[in-house]
Specification:
single chain, 7-stranded mixed β-sheet, Phage-like protein, Rossmann fold, 7 strands, alpha/beta, 188 residues, 7 helices
């Protein structure tokens, strides 16, 4: 299966699909953290290749509730609308041209502006003792089944201290979730 992982610089999901025998490529404006097929640039440059599955992690900074206290400013200067438009552009492209698709976002305004997500998952359902509610909107894919429910749930991401790598670390996909996507969606 040819898989595009859009807006992913960590390479976690891409590498999980590659380990599963798929032809996968990540794409992000930033360089990838790991070695592997990666297009550094605008995802719109590679959307029109033939993809069987597209998973996208559209930037959430301006549309997720973690930044809700700044929503008024983000609406005024256009950042919020830009985030909404980008999410919808990727979704509409996938609806037209890709057989299977998943959009991933933390809890945010897309649940009311677009539609309710098909599923909300947590890292603790996939072997990580942390909380981070993550919405999945799906096209022709099954819901992700939990693979390793663990105790000791902590809001580590929410409590992460400010710093130069905070946004990058907060956006990385948990390995257990990446592995579940590859094993479950790669077989669908």
């Amino acid at each position: 299966m040819r898989v595009l992982i859009a807006c992913e610089e960590s390479g976690a999901v891409r590498d999980a699909f590659i380990r599963g025998g798929h032809d996968a490529m990540s794409c992000d404006l930033l360089p990838t953290r790991s070695h592997g097929p990666h297009y550094q640039g605008d995802v719109r440059d590679v959307l029109h290749a033939c993809w069987d599955l597209m998973i996208f992690h559209a930037p959430c900074t301006d549309i997720c509730v973690s930044g809700a206290k700044h929503f008024a400013a983000k609406r005024m200067d256009g950042r919020q609308q830009a985030g909404i438009s980008f999410f919808m552009e990727l979704w509409r492209h996938g609806e037209r041209y890709v057989d299977k698709m998943a959009a991933e976002q933390p809890i945010g305004i897309m649940s009311s502006l677009f539609r309710k997500p098909d599923q909300i998952i947590q890292p603790w359902q996939f072997g990580h003792g942390e909380t981070k509610a993550t919405c999945l909107w799906l096209k022709n894919l099954p819901l992700l089944a939990p693979t390793n429910i663990v105790e000791g749930r902590e809001a580590r991401i929410h409590k992460m201290a400010p710093g130069p790598n905070r946004a990058r670390e907060r956006s990385a996909t948990y390995q257990g979730i990446a592995d579940a996507m590859a094993s479950q969606w790669g077989a669908s």
